[in-house]
Amino acid sequence: MAKDFLHYYVQRAKIYRDEAQRAITCTTLDEHERAEIIKKTLLRSVTAELANLSTEISAYYELLEAIQTYSQKQPELVLELTYIRTACQKFIDSYA
Hints:
Elements: H1 2-28, H2 32-52, H3 58-73, H4 77-95
Helix pairs in contact: 1-2, 1-4, 2-3, 3-4
């Protein structure tokens, strides 16, 4: 059962990583509004998962908490997205 959850959480982390990368790409194309929308959608998803999360895998909870906390402290869009992408990749590398 925990292995099924782990696979699900790795897949979710991949989605967050890919969305962060997509938003970074938008910023390089001067599509800052689009990047902000992607980021806000990503953070809404993180917040919803945190509110409904009941997991045996505390590392995933810690990943979501770190994303949410860092996002509240970091006003620079690209730095925030880079942090999200990197944190998700570290989680994936640890558990995939």
